[in-house]
From TrEMBL:
Keywords annotated in UniProt: Metal-binding, Zinc
UniProt xrefs under Pfam families: ADH_N, ADH_zinc_N
Names of required cofactors: Zn(2+)
Gene Ontology molecular function terms on file: metal ion binding
Entries under SUPFAM superfamilies matching the protein: GroES-like (SSF50129), NAD(P)-binding Rossmann-fold domains (SSF51735)
Sequence ranges assigned to domain Alcohol dehydrogenase-like N-terminal in this UniProt record: 25-150
Protein name in the entry: Threonine dehydrogenase
Amino acid sequence: MRALCWEGTGTLAVRQVPDPELRNAQDMIVRVRRSATCGADLPLLTGRIPYLAAGDVLGHEFLGEVVEVGPEVRRHRVADRVVVCAAIACGACWFCRQGLFACCDNGTPGAAAAESAWGQPTAGCYGHPGPLGGFAGSHAEYVRVPYADVGAFTVPDGVSDDRAVFASDAAPTGWLGTELGEVAPGDVVAVWGAGAVGQLTAGAALLRGADRVIVVDGHDDRLRMVERHVGAEPLDYRYVDVPAELRERSGGRGPDVCVEAVGMAADPPGLLTGRLGGGADRPLALREAVHACRKGGTVVVLGTWTGFVDTFPLGAVMNKGLTVRSARQHGQRWIPMLLERMARDELRTEHLATHHLPLERGPDGYALFRDRADGCVRAVFSP
């Protein structure tokens, strides 16, 4: 089959790779219909994360059609249209039973590398190397889906592929941000980053009853999307003192909840952890979020981080009495609810699929996405 593969730092190519096969009784094979780029891919492309090898297939946010099921798969049949959670979890370990699917004990075959990096293994992820499982990604014609009854969900009739594909990762990540922030009616919420995750976090905050939601970014096209498609307030950091403006919009206190949805993609390269070599990353947006948040408020870290960070304002966290929370998305908890909201037209995401390309143009799609060129928020591939 054809797949978009990593060929070395900054280099991608479409090549022929072996077709996936069922390896376990709970596996199924999905023919990919949509597979989207994601900011979590960018550290892979720039060489920030070790273990990736030439020929590894990228991609983790996808939707497709079931073509084969293992003997223990009960929830899915051949020809079902499904969206697959980007986080690979067993559904049976202690963490999964608590709803902490991204903390799964069994989702990462390469547990030793994860323990070296983070102290404990976590859930796997499609299209990521060693510490996140080493599973082949979704920028391909077919994907093996382990723990299929846990991580795949039937898409309701009437929900388009372009809408449903975002239920794989970006939409549950956005909902996670509001859960961690415990966003409630009357809150003022600020979100740094107007990409797909930032916009969907803002939308989730509004659905939960937030009084004001402000999205901070410096790209005109994305800020227009925030206002037009999300209904949140855009704030261009190029022209204002962001913390001062946020205090002005929140009764002089600062936002109740500040969500960082930028990550390390714009920072200088660093490896997975200091133990593995390389320098620390600089949390520019996160640092501003800590300073802007009201005393006693909550700062949520949603951006992709893999190791140590430098110049983190811990003194501000302690002296202001802030709560700092973070996680990878536990999508298995929220994807059914998000699909229902999509079916009721309460959650619209298709505007985020700004560029549609065939798989053969995968390298072009990533160049557009990486550079935010031509108004690209997400490039979506159709094998």
